[in-house]
Design brief:
75% helix, globular, mainly alpha
Amino acid sequence: MARKLLRILLVLVLLALIGAGYAWWPRTGDLRGFDADAVGRLETGMWRDYYGHDYKSLANRLYSLYRDQYHFSPADSAQLAYASGKAAQLFQPTGSRAEAQVALPLLVNYYALLRDRGGESFDAEKAAKLELDWWQLRRENATPVQYGNVVAQVAVELFKTDNEHVQKSAQLRAAMMRYRDDRRDGRMQAEDWAHIEENLIEAYRELKAGVARTP
């Protein structure tokens, strides 16, 4: 009986080690190899979570984004989901650019991990500052074109490429941000979310076309 229990214990330890190795072993993600339709649907859900203050669902969708679409390890996906989701949560109640800086350290950490594990080469601090800039511009009476330009700058920094697909993707996303903002305070209906999802899918199709690796 003692030997049988010992064998079971060893098997359990081995399985635990294999599971930990799978979760924590570093691997290179792929920021360009995503399914555009899936990412568009996920982003629509994340917008609904963010504006509904459902941070648990937001974290789950973010984890799925990094794990299933960008192919990071489970551990890296969890870290990316935490950093990006927490940055958004901290930013949400702020009322000025000075207050919004509370989200910047997490955004820098997020982009640093995205760079180190994602197979790209970019300035994490620059990307984080651009990200926070368009978040804030949306609150400062900027036009969708203006903050869409900054959304595009983030993509250009990440992928080191700029073309009509990258620009169109950013402007489509910005237009949908304004569409949602114009229907805030409970005026968003199911058909409005369907419209946003359709356009976000198109936005990510454009982005994928714009950053595809050439043979």
